[in-house]
Amino acid sequence: MKFLFALVVVLLSATAGLAQENEPDAQVERVLGDAASYRQLFDTLQDAVRKGDRTAVASLVRFPINVRIDGRRRMIADPAGFAANYERIVTPEIAAAITSQRWEDVHVSQRGIMLGRGEVWLNGICHDTMCRTFDARVVTIQSVGDAPTHPTPD
Question: What is the DSSP letter of 51?
C-alpha cells in the first residue's frame, strides 16, 4: 500500500511539472490560438536578434510599424526601411528584452504576447474576419520609457 501511495505521489508530481512547463502554450492556445505559430515566431525572433540578422528580424514584423528613432516617432513602411534602421530600432535595451525572455515567463493577454517589460509584443494578423487563419508577427517594438506596457495602435 505504501508503494502504491508513493507511486501516485510521484506520478502527480510529474504531471504537475509537465503542466507548468506547458502553461504558456495552454494560455496562448486559449487566448490567441495556435501556440506553435507563436512559439516558432518567438524562437526565430530570438535567434535572428542574437545573430544580428536584420533581414530575418524584418521578415517577422507586421508593416507598417510605428517605432521611435532618436526619440521621434516614425512609421516604417516595409522590411527594407526596417533593415536600414535596424540598430536604431532594435536598440541594446530591446535586443536584451528579446534575447533574455524565457518562453515560460511570457505574459499573454488578448493584446498579444509581451516580451520583456513591454518592449516587444507578438500577435496574430488575421487573414479573414473570423481569424481562422493568421500570421504570428512582431506588432510592437518600443522602449519601455516611450510607451505604456501594451501594444500601441499603428
Answer: H
Name the 3-class secondary structure at 142: coil
How many angstroms separate the CA atoms of 44 and 137, rounded?
A: 11
Helix 35-51 crosses helix 92-100 at what angle (to 10 degrees)? 130
Q: What is the pLDDT of residue 69?
A: 87
Regions of the chain where pLDDT drops below 70:
1-22, 146-154
pTM value? Answer: 0.80
Contact residues for 123 (Cβ-Cβ < 8 A; gap 6+): 32, 111, 112, 113, 136, 137, 139, 151
Cα distance between residue 83 and residue 106, in whole Å: 26
